[in-house]
Amino acid sequence: MKQSKESREIGFIRARALDDLANTSDDEIRNEYREAGQDLALIAQQTHDTLRDAVAAGLRARLASAKVAVKASVAARPSPQARPAMERLKAILTETFVREPRVAMAFRDGKKQTDEDLVSVYDDLVAMGIIKPEDHGD
Fold first, then answer.
1. Which residue has the higher pLDDT, 129 or 105?
2. pTM of the prediction?
């Protein structure tokens, strides 16, 4: 896309102004403001406020974007289907672990998994495509 002459000129001026600012010492900047009769404390506070507001706006935009991404992710997940009865679910998990040796489940501190843990594992394996409910008639 071709830039207009005006856009190129503005870009050139902006680049020169930033170069000038980068090559000007803090003391020179302070002296310029003093010579113009400006209050350095007020300018510092205004700069601080402007930067704080810009950062806050950026963070709000990132949060809004993250919320949209989470909503899209949740919406993309398949809705939970009816699960088999607990005994059948345990049998399906056992069959899966035997059939798929690369899939494993660890026990923490040697504790037994609760029914809720097993339901969560089942849902995860269904979501990953390792267990296909239709294969089990469930």
1. 129
2. 0.42
